[in-house]
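>> received
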Amino acid sequence: MGKSSKKKNKVILPPQLPPDVEDDEVVVSDEDVEFFRGNEGHARALVRLDRKSIDSYVTRVADHDEDEVERLYEERERRRKAAEALKPKKEPEDLEVDRVDALPVKTLQGELVFNTAKKARYDDSSSGVKSKSEDKGVDAKQATQKEWKAKFKKEKGDSKLQNVHAQTEAPNGKLQSKVLEEVKEELSAEELFEKKKARLAEIGMSMLENPESNIRSLNDMLIICNDKDQKVVKLGLMSLLAVFRDIIPSYRIRQLTEKELTVEVSKDVKKMRYYEYTLLRAYKAYLQKLISLEKKSHFYTVAARCMCTLLDTAPHFNFRESILASVVRNLSSPDDAVRKMCCETVRSLFVNEGKHRGEATIEAVRLIADHVKLNDRQLHPDSIEVLLSLRFDEDLGKDETEVEKGKPKKNKRRQNQEVPKQLPMSDKKKTKRELISKARKEVDAELRAVSFTLDPKEKRSIQKETLAALFETYFRILKHSMSTSNSRGKAINVSSDVSHPLLAPCLEGLGKFSHLIDLGFMGELIACLKKLSGYSDHQFKILPDNTLSVSERLQCCIVAFKVWRSNLEALNVDLQDFFVQLFNLILEYRPERDHGEVLADALKTLLWEGKNQDMIRAAAFIKRLATFALSFGSAEAIAALITLKHLLLKNSKCRNMLENDSSGGSLSCLVAKYDPEAKDPYLSGALASVLWELSLLQKHYDASVSSMASNILSMANLNPTQNPVPISNANPLEAYKDLSMELELSKPVNKMLPPNCKKRRGKEFVSLSSDVLESSDFRADGDELKDKLKNHFAVLRGISENERLRAELNHTLSSINLYKEYKKQKKNAKSKASRKKIASALSCCV
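>> returned
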């Protein structure tokens, strides 16, 4: 019963009426007009109908209130509009027929469906026919049956052709669609890049304006760094670098203890702790990102630059160890830009120790030592050259007792004063004083941790550890070089191209820090350098197959002398073997292969700066240097001649070698005949020779070399106590550098001619080969050639005679001028004497 009553009470609304049609849209045919004209009564009856009553009758609902029915109608209309709004709008493929021309169909649900017709699609031919028919005023509906059949056949044929064309044009359409899609993707990628770029700039500006309130924005920037686009990632890394450089504090953030976390603090302290915690977490994530991207070739340079910048700006901050390890690893990078960047960063770290209290310096030196050990000493020399920028105190090599002795002593009176006796204190005062002292110690420790200044004792201990790690690296490189050279000498099948890339900077570092080496290692170091220089105990069996170059062996000699001179008071070592080795290395020098600057430095260190040399050894070096100057370029020649002149000034007896005697030098020695290929300077017999090379060097093409040779030859006419007029006070190394610089600047610049520019004849030298000259048929008249040569040499003789006469004329004129000046001075003296006599006579008369 309940169910039947519910069904009866359910309201069933009638279907919707057709929409109202305006009068302007109603199309009335001619037949309807004629019908209503003939039957006017029917038209009057239709006009009298009550439309409202009919509508209310049609839309009535039995046994229900009208207000409720109206509400239901409104609800149905609202639902219909909502459903239409949710449906996607599509263009109607079919053309709806006018509702007056066709009656609607009522569905079972009570909806009215009006008849529709498809849109007509005509080809060009059909459209042409239609236009013609329209021009004639004939409607398309009145076409005959034959015309419709013909049209149907044409449409069939056209549809087949259209299918064929569609199959051929399909790939072209696909290509066009692909191209359009790619262009859209590129445009969208550029727009997306600009949006991300603007986003990074916005976040960065907000961080720089107020970092404490916007500290969470660092996570957004880190998320952008994980983008697939490489440009966006690089831009994000550089943006984060700029932000971190600005917001990193000037202190190291330490981790809070459990006791500190349990203590209640104020809001400001909580805010500061949260800021530091978030900053440290973002900084750690950023460093991890850089280390991971460093392994990829696309981001290698950017990651290395970020690491170097962070280490340079904030060496005191957290996670310094990981950054320093990465930078030290890149010191021997194959990329020149990255390697130079890392070297500059480490140098600035060594120089600016005030930023990190010297702690980063010792960490870097230890990491470099481990790096050298792991790579078996096969690294780029720049990885060791950075150690030359280290700075140590001058008194670091001395003992603490010596340092204390050098300090000024305190006043004896104050020391002898008796300390006043302290009165006994109570337990409370003792505990109070202990607490105060403990608090002061804690405060001092915190201040030391915050400040970058070190106590003298701490600084000294750090420098000692750094120096120990430095010399450990240097001695490891020396031992490795010795082991390879020994294996080279013993083994036969060892390759000859064994390289020692780290030996040159290692020897340079030993020479610089030689005054800091402990005296216990001096003997071993000198012996090691002697072996590396190639010297053997048997003077006639010097190993010719030494793996080291001439420059490296010369550096060994230089370092040995620097070590000896820096510890002269406490070291007794005979350095005669290094003189012998230098004497032999001068003959092995080749300018294209070896470094001339190293040779000049060796001449300066061993011969120029040393004490008075032994006469026999000095004579051997003088003769060998004269031969050397004649054989090589002007830069090497000037260095050799300056050293030669210095030796002649120090050893006046060796000036007898300047005498042009057919029997040689006038001094007697152990060896009566000079041996130019002698291995030992004492067995060369140089005192029995003459420096005939200087007469040839007088005609050298370089003016500085020729003037120096002439100046040395002028010493033959002077007494042993007299010295010639000095030309320059430069040492061999300075002279070599100056002349090398002049030669580099005087080199002509090769101007490239354009391809269309033709060379002029007669203005350029063309070298012909000997084969071409032999094959060419060249015949000349002997008398004509003799006359030409006679004229040429006559001109030369005339020029030399003219120069001689000019010199005599200048000499005569200068002597005449001197005589005139002498006469003038004599005349003035006589006039002065006569004036004095007259003045004295007048005084007597008065």
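>> The first strand starts at residue 94 and ends at 96.
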